[in-house]
Design brief:
This protein is mainly β and 809 residues long. Among the domains are: 146 residues, no CATH class; 116 residues, no CATH class; 95 residues, no CATH class; 183 residues, no CATH class. The protein has five helices and 50 strands. The strands form 14 sheets. It has a 17-stranded antiparallel beta sheet that branches. The longest helix has 11 residues. It is extended, with a radius of gyration of 39 Å.
Length: 809
């Protein structure tokens, strides 16, 4: 392709034209310029308050101390604005509450200008209210761009060359980010509905028991294991008699009801003594055995196993689980049944122990805070429909079996019962109502997550106003009445009340959804919309708008009770407003996506990390761990004869002012106390906490050492732990192991008997026994796996144990 062009140029050699130099500024302003206005409005209050006093004492007048001798206060409410040529502006406001500071910049037109407003900032972003749209107004947590245009629409020219205005069209556009989350309130008429969800695994444990026998000779006597008790059992455990105010019993039905939480405060075992037919321990013949999943055993335990065998779910052999007080019999054997202990010479049946399966325990009761205007029911988690096969009924003396006793029924106590069947106080089905469908729910430490059921408590408040608070984005409020939207409902931002188009009926179901200000970024949403409003000179007006709201945070996720829905809507309204008559009709298309994040978090980890520091006392040298002997392979039997005594060193120094300091293990001033056994505490800068040291001299005859640490203060955290991380290290170790294998084990579980302490004699403080069925044993170090084999790690190592439901028994 060939192109050509012809150009012409006129030359002025004598008077060349010079190009004008560009102005270095867009426009010039000065303080004397009438087109510039700088305003500072508001107030700034400051105050200085002083307090003083004198007191007349026996020593004469003396100055009296005050909590606030000098106090400086200030209150700020300022607005700074810069206006240029009456249209362009920059504005900022400052308040005491910095979260409410606002700023904006833009252009504001005159009354007759087509462009009425164009602004950017976190205020002045108020998109008009259109029916069915929830774009809302702005708040200090918002940021975006808003513009408004207006056009006067005129009729055709008249013969007199005059025009006639027939209406005005206003256009709106918004693009805004809102830091707000969706909230919802429900009402029945003007009574607010609040709902509480209770999981079925949150039943009361350790409060109600069915004994193996009924029609007893005497009232059962309850013993509570208590370290400060005066009664001693055959394993040196300490017990006390329960007070009459702590429990009630029925000789006719063989029922025990705990009435005071103090009976379970120590978290130990419960045992009961009674007689029947002149026999002091009738349960030895009435208990029987569990049997297995195919054939139930005999007696009381056989009937319990039979109820678990009738399940449509996985069959469970109850003899495979720890039993109350049982420490001799192995799991999965017929001998694994609740134990008998001799307390102060009296035979007693152990009916409850944490971490065991008690065949006597009633697990059908729930503590529910409700009132006379509350409704409690069992519902499906999936669809919220009520399950009518079961009902939750308030517990009374009739279903406690303790008529005539001092125990009082508790208004907050409910029992889950099967409907359509007679309630039998002693039946396994009354103790475990869901045993046929979810038997795992009643096992030790169960967290049955497969349940599609939960308890829903609905409470009706007192009649009042529909109040949702003032921290709401204006225009985001949407009201539904019996499932249908009410486009005429309004929200008062000053008092936080919602006004309906007409008064609600007494039982009318009202649902209000709105956006509440939030500082959490994961709730941030992007709103965008365009709208048109037409107003004629006459009674007619029309609105039309298209809006979108969608979560745009990359860190967003949904979880139970909190979602991030998105909406897209088209809204329209026609209205006629005469002096004596008003007509309005609205229409809309609305799409709602319940979750815009694409991510649902089933289990949040906030607050799940718990670091338990060592107490300053209470640890002591361990007795022979029989449960560890059962797991060692090959079994180098651990005994008191081949146990190395732990040494005790004091790493604490005290200065002349009485201030004590705990030193690190490298401190050379540690004193060896020959009359005490370890372990001992030292300070560690790496972990920034005191740590325990187990020091011993090992020989071919002394092959093991151990210490125990009571963790009563952390029992609640351990009960729900999924992972446990243990830091450890070796110190002052030989350069070569010379073929010696070193193993370290961690045991977590229940102890019984004396609560030993670091003692004054090497062999003291070692009394007590453990329940092997309730002890978790985990190897955390084995030198035979080291590379190179000949060395031990002298830096901090960590081992993380994964704990299952069975491990937490």
């Amino acid at each position: 392709m060939i192109t050509s062009a012809v150009t012409a140029q006129e030359s002025h050699k004598d008077n060349p034209i010079r190009a004008e130099e560009a102005d270095p500024t867009l426009f010039k302003l000065s303080r004397e310029d009438d087109s510039v206005t700088l305003q500072l409005q508001g107030s700034w209050e400051a105050g200085l308050r002083a307090q003083g006093g004198v007191a007349l004492t026996e020593l004469g007048l003396q100055a009296a101390a005050t909590d606030n001798p000098l106090l400086f206060t200030q209150r700020v409410d300022l607005t700074l604005s810069l206006w240029i040529r009456d249209h362009w502006f920059i504005e900022a406001s400052f308040l005491d509450n910095y979260d409410l500071n606002t700023y904006r910049a833009g252009y504001q037109g005159s009354e007759d200008d087509k462009l009425q407003y164009l602004g950017v900032g976190n205020t002045g972003l108020d998109f008009p209210n259109f029916p069915y749209l929830n774009l809302g107004g702005s708040s200090a947590s918002s940021f975006g761009l808003y513009n408004k245009w207006q056009f006067n629409l005129n009729s055709s020219e008249r013969t007199d060359s005059q025009t006639s205005q027939t209406g005005r069209l206003t256009l709106h556009g918004i693009l805004r980010y809102d830091g707000a989350k969706f909230e919802e309130k429900r009402y029945a008429g003007t009574r607010e509905l609040t709902q509480q969800r209770i999981e079925l695994s949150e039943m009361l444990r350790g409060y109600s028991f069915v004994l193996p026998d009924e029609k007893l000779d005497t009232v059962p006597v309850l013993y509570i294991e208590d370290p400060s008790g005066t009664y001693i059992d055959d394993h040196n455990g300490r017990w006390r008699l329960a007070k009459p105010s702590e429990y009630a019993a029925s000789t006719r039905d063989g029922i025990i009801e705990i009435s005071s939480p103090s009976a379970l405060a120590v978290g130990k075992r419960l045992a009961v003594a009674y007689s029947k037919g002149g026999t002091s321990n009738p349960w030895t013949s009435s208990l029987g055995t569990y049997g297995n999943t195919s054939t139930a055993g005999s007696g009381f335990l056989g009937s319990v196993q039979a109820s678990f065998n009738a399940t449509s779910s996985t069959k469970i052999a109850l003899r495979d689980y720890p039993q109350p007080g049982q420490k001799e019999a192995k799991l999965k054997t017929d001998a694994n049944i609740p134990a008998t202990v001799t307390i102060n010479g009296t035979n007693c049946l152990v009916i409850w122990e944490p971490g065991t399966f008690s065949p006597f325990e009633r697990l059908s009761r729930y503590r529910i805070q409700s009132g006379t205007s509350s409704m409690v029911k069992l519902v499906s988690t999936a669809d919220g429909q009520e399950n009518r096969d079961f009902a939750l009924e308030p517990v009374s003396s009739s279903n406690m079996g303790t008529e005539g006793s001092s125990i009082q029924s508790d208004a907050s106590l409910y029992e889950l019962v099967q409907t359509g069947t007679a309630y039998e106080l002693r039946s396994p089905e009354s103790r475990w109502p869901l045993v046929q469908s979810h038997p795992e729910l009643y096992l030790p430490a169960s967290r049955d997550t497969s349940l599609d059921l939960h308890i829903l408590v609905t409470t009706y408040g007192s009649p009042g106003t529909l109040s949702i608070g003032t921290d709401v984005l204006p225009g985001s409020v949407q009201v539904y009445r019996n499932g249908l939207p009410d486009p005429l409902a309004t929200y008062n931002a000053e008092n936080g009340e919602v006004l309906l188009s007409s008064p609600p009926a007494e039982q009318e179901q009202i649902r209000i959804v709105y956006l509440q200000r939030s500082e959490e970024r994961r709730f941030g949403s992007l709103s965008a919309g365009i709208g048109a409003q037409y107003k004629s000179d006459g009674p007619f007006s029309a609105d039309l708008a298209l809006g979108l709201r969608w979560n745009v945070s990359p860190a967003a996720f949904s979880e139970k009770g909190t979602t991030s829905p998105g909406t897209v809507g088209l809204s329209g309204k026609l209205a006629w407003d005469w002096e004596q008559l008003k007509i309005q009709t609205t229409a809309g298309l609305f799409y709602r996506q319940e979750d815009t994040t694409g991510l649902y978090r089933a289990l949040g980890m906030e607050g799940s990390h718990y670091a338990e520091p060592f107490p300053s006392s209470g640890f002591y040298q361990s007795p022979v761990p029989q449960s560890l002997n059962d797991t060692l392979s090959p079994p180098p039997s651990l005994s008191a004869d081949n146990q190395a005594q732990l040494l005790y060193r004091s790493y604490t120094s005290t200065d002349i002012l009485g201030i004590s300091t705990l030193h690190s293990i490298d401190w050379t001033g540690a004193e060896l106390l020959p009359n005490k056994t370890g372990p001992y505490l030292v300070s560690d800068s790496t972990l920034n906490t005191p740590v325990l040291v187990g020091e011993a001299n090992y020989t071919p005859e002394k092959i093991w050492a151990a210490f125990q640490l009571p963790m009563d203060q952390a029992s609640s955290a351990l009960a729900g732990a999924r992972h446990i991380t243990i830091p450890f290290r070796f110190y002052d170790v030989p350069a070569s192991l010379d073929g010696i294998t070193i193993k370290v084990y961690l045991q977590i579980g229940a102890l019984d008997g004396g609560s030993g302490t670091a003692s004054d004699a090497p062999n003291d403080g070692l009394t007590g026994w453990e329940n092997p069925n309730l002890v978790l044993t985990a190897p955390i170090f084995d030198s035979s796996t080291l590379v190179p084999v000949a060395s031990l790690p002298t830096q901090w190592q960590t081992v993380t144990l994964t704990i299952s439901d069975a491990d937490r028994r």
